[in-house]
Amino acid sequence: MREALRGLTTRGRSFLAAAVAASISAIILGERDLLRVSVLLAALPLLAAWYVGRSRYRLACSRSLDPGRAPVGSSARVILRLQNVSRLPTGTMLLEDRLPYALGSRPRVVLERLGAHQASSVAYTVRADVRGRYPIGPLVVRLTDPFGLCELTRSFPSVDQLTVIPQVTALPLVRLAGEYAGTGDSRARSVAVHGEDDAATREYRRGDDLRRVHWRSTARTGELMVRREEQPWESRATVVLDTRLTAHRGEGPTASFEWAVAAAASIAVHLRQNGYKLRLVTGTGVDIDAIEAGGEGLILDTLADVKLTAEGDLSTLVQHVRHRSDGGLVIGLFGTLTLAEAELLGQLRANGASCIGFAVDSSTWTPLSDSDREAADRDHGAASLAMVRSGWRSVPVRHGDTLAAIWPAVSRGSQGFAYRAPMAETVNGVNR
């Protein structure tokens, strides 16, 4: 009741002040009718406080997100369900859900009175243009009486999380340089061992075909042994994301790093849908495998959180990738590279890996003078050539390029290119 009295609105406090003034006047003037009015004026806000206080702890709230994982630039629907679990009806309620600034202003919804055990749902839409994880809630409910004399605030503890993932682009089907060709030895395939390591036989299991019994191993071990089934080939791919702060330019959703993150997400989803067992490695120390069904969800959630880092260098990233490398296909998304860094990437060719690198020319994300642009283009071309000499298929990326447009360049059937010299344009009769 004390908390309810503290929740009296300006109108409710005015009623109490009027009641006190009327009581003093009634005593001074000896007017009994005025005293009755003062009692009525005092009773109304007190009754309102009691009424609101009764419904203080008798509300239940649930929140659902549709979808819980939304791409950058898309909208998500938040559905709130409020239920009155008491026998008394509530007054008019003002709902306010707390949101991060990136999701927009806090939504405020007026909900009319709820009867006994009655429930009602309201919904609103949020939109985020920056990837990340955003808490939604807690929900704040302002309860009022029908006369607006008392207002009580209740905050529900539940908080839900909206994950804003990078935008995924559909990519055309191409023959990748390291994919399995159907016969012979493939660099992107490895044997999936389901039994004992380095053994051609295993113990007999109920239901095994007796024609597969290996009698020599049975005699040697004293237990019935059968030949293992031929193990299937499987495609493996590693997506490497360069997160060095010095390698990227631009700010916000249009930065070169955001292009690389979105490209990593699109490539990862594309490879997973085509049967690849995927590994994601970033310069921030992230190293995850997406092997089970739905593994692309884990990749997307990880990429929703990845940030640029001022620490670490490319050599650390290369060593991290090589730590558990077993060949296969390596697709790297790198920012601006020096000549030495491009040559360093040749170490990822170990174990016969097929390497495809998207060399993001982050200098094109910022305006430069003509001389600086010429120097930047020259350095970028030299780094791309060094990647090719190290055994990589280099796919340079400039500001304005779309992944879907340049993706066919990774095909092993295409002629490929080491770097793309900037197209010459004529301005006022001068070639640039």
Write up what this structure looks like.
The protein has helices spanning 2-6, 10-29, 32-54, 215-221, 256-273, 295-305, 314-323, 339-344, 370-389, 403-406; strands at 59-66, 69-71, 75-84, 93-97, 108-111, 119-127, 132-136, 139-144, 151-155, 160-165, 189-191, 201-203, 225-227, 233-241, 277-282, 287-290, 329-334, 354-360, 392-397, 426-427, 430-431. With 432 residues, it is an alpha/beta fold. β8 (139-144) and β9 form a beta hairpin. It starts with a helix and ends with a strand. It has 10 helices and 21 strands. 29% of the residues lie in helices and 26% in strands. It folds into 4 domains: 2-54; 59-165, Sandwich (Immunoglobulin-like), CATH 2.60.40.10; 193-227, no CATH class; 233-431, von Willebrand factor, type A domain (Rossmann fold), CATH 3.40.50. Strands 11, 14, 15, 16, 17, 18 and 19 form a 7-stranded mixed β-sheet that branches. A 4-stranded antiparallel β-sheet has the order 5-4-8-9. α2 runs antiparallel to α3 and α5 (256-273) packs antiparallel against α6.
